[in-house]
Amino acid sequence: MAARSDRPDHGGLIVPRTSRLARRAASLLALLVVAVVLAAWLTARPGDPGLYPPAPGAETVTVRLVAGAWHSGLLLPRSDLARAAAEAGDGALVEVTERFGAYPALEIGWGDAGFYRAVPTIDALDWRLALRALFTPGGRPAVLHVVGVAAEPEAAFPGAGIVSLPLSRAGFGRLVAALGRSFALRDGHPAILGPGLYGPSLFYEARGRFSLLNVCNHWSAGLLHEAGLPVTPLLDTLPRGLALDLAWRAGGPRPHAP
Known about the structure:
By secondary structure, the chain is an alpha+beta fold. It has nine helices and eleven strands. The protein has helices spanning about 15-45, 80-90, 90-100, 115-120, 125-135, 155, 170-180, 215-225, 240-250; strands at about 10, 15, 60-65, 70-75, 105-110, 140-150, 160-170, 185, 190, 190-195, 200-210. It has a seven-stranded antiparallel β-sheet. The longest helix has 27 residues, at about 15-45. The protein is globular and about 70 Å long.
C-alpha cells in the first residue's frame, strides 16, 4: 500500500507546506497594510485653506519641523513668536521669549516628563521608561523643552530631518495661541522645572497628558494643524512619518539632513 502524504494534491501537484505558510503570511501582511492605510485615511484631519498655504505675495513666517530619531520639535523665529504672543496678550509666552532674548530662534518640544528629562539621546534610551510613558493608563504628566538657537538649523541639529514651512501670519498666530496653551502656569508665570538637555535650554511644566495616542510628534502636528496644515495622526506617531506626511499632504519640501 502506498504511503500517505500529508501534503494535499492540487491537480496532481504537491504543494509544499512552506509555500502554503508563505502565502498565508503574504495575505496577512497585505490585510495589515490595507488596514493601516484605511485607518490613516479615516483619521486624517483636513487643513484650513483660509490659513494654509499662504496667499501669493502675503507676509509669511517660516516655521521648521526638526525631526530626530524618536522626537520632533518646532523651530520658531523668536521675534515673530514674541510679536504674536504680545498681540494675543499672552504674557507668559512673552516671558519665555524674553528669557531667551539673546537668540534669534527657539526650538520647542513637548513630551513625557520622566522620559524626556532622563533620555537626552537615542543612545541613552531606557525601554522601561519608554514603555511606562506610552502605556500608563490615563497618560503621564508632560513637560516642554525650550532651547535658544543661534546657529543655522542644519548646523544646530546635525542629522535631523528638517522641513521648512512658510505659514501665513494668521496661521502662525493660531499656532502661537495653541503653543501658549501648552504651558502650565503658576501665579500667571510659566513654571520652570530646571535646566534642559543641551545648549541654553530649560524645561517647563506643560499641560496635557503623554500616552501612546498623544506623543510628542502628535503635539507638533497639532500645532501645525492649528496653523491650517492637514495632518494624519496615525502617520504622525513617528517623527519621520510626520515629516513625510507634511511633504505629502501639506506640499512641504521633503525632509533633508546634512
